[in-house]
């Protein structure tokens, strides 16, 4: 794995075949995948014994699924040098996903992990997936959900430092542009919404040589941030620009 890789696990909600689902995955893998030395996807499906009506586990089974995950990760990473990439909860099952190069005896190693959980039925399988389509096309969130995940990361950090999310404060947003004309068009659209320019500068990125930082006072609540960020992101798409996140100070 690349020396810059840092595991970055997060979760989001969605639907899988019309059933509510929770997907957890290692987001940082997006920067390095597909790993050419690990072209084979392994999946393990574990069936819940007592799921809730919505298909998610009760509290006791949730903890057991965590133990099963630990056992599978231990076996497959140790014995096959597999990389654990994601997990899902939906429709009464828990699915675990790995990528590996060598698949020899994978069935034995899965059975060795599950031997401590005799009350749980499970299935498994392997498929060649050179382009990591399982990771990118199934597990990975769409662009909207990915941005919401990034928002939650910043909001969690603010809360951990005692931030009062219901209090307004200046929030800065960064946008990168390919041309001066794109930047001007973006600003002409957004200035009417109460934003001011905090920074207007050149960018080191040759693809996006122009950079704009705009600021407005808003609450740092999840609903407010998601609404503001997605409107700025969508406008950036319209003018061929790139929204590059937000930052603010802690308010106590």
TrEMBL record:
Residues 149-248 form the Regulator of ribonuclease activity B domain. Gene3D superfamilies: RraB-like. InterPro entries: DUF695, RraB-like_sf, RraB_dom. Residues 8-140 form the DUF695 domain. This is DUF695 domain-containing protein.
């Amino acid at each position: 794995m690349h020396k810059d890789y840092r595991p970055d696990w997060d979760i989001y909600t969605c639907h899988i075949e019309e059933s509510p689902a929770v997907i957890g995955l290692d987001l940082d893998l997006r920067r390095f995948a597909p790993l050419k030395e690990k072209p084979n996807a392994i999946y393990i499906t574990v069936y819940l014994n007592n799921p809730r009506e919505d298909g998610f586990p009760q509290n006791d089974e949730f903890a057991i699924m965590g133990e099963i995950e630990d056992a599978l990760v231990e076996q497959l990473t140790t014995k096959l040098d597999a990389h654990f990439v994601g997990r899902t909860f939906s429709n009464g099952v828990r699915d675990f996903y790995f990528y590996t190069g060598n698949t020899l005896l994978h069935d034995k190693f899965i059975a060795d992990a599950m031997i401590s959980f005799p009350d749980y039925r499970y299935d498994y399988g392997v498929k060649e997936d050179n382009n990591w389509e399982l990771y990118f096309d199934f597990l990975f969130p769409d662009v909207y959900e990915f941005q919401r995940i990034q928002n939650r990361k910043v909001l969690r950090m603010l809360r951990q430092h005692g931030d009062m999310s219901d209090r307004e404060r200046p929030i800065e947003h960064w946008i990168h542009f390919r041309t001066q004309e794109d930047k001007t068009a973006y600003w002409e659209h957004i200035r009417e919404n109460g934003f001011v320019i905090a920074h207007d500068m050149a960018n080191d990125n040759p693809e996006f040589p122009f950079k704009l930082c705009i600021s407005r006072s808003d609450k740092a609540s999840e609903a407010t941030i998601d609404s503001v960020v997605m409107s700025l992101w969508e406008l950036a798409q319209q003018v061929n620009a790139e929204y590059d996140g937000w930052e603010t100070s802690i308010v106590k």
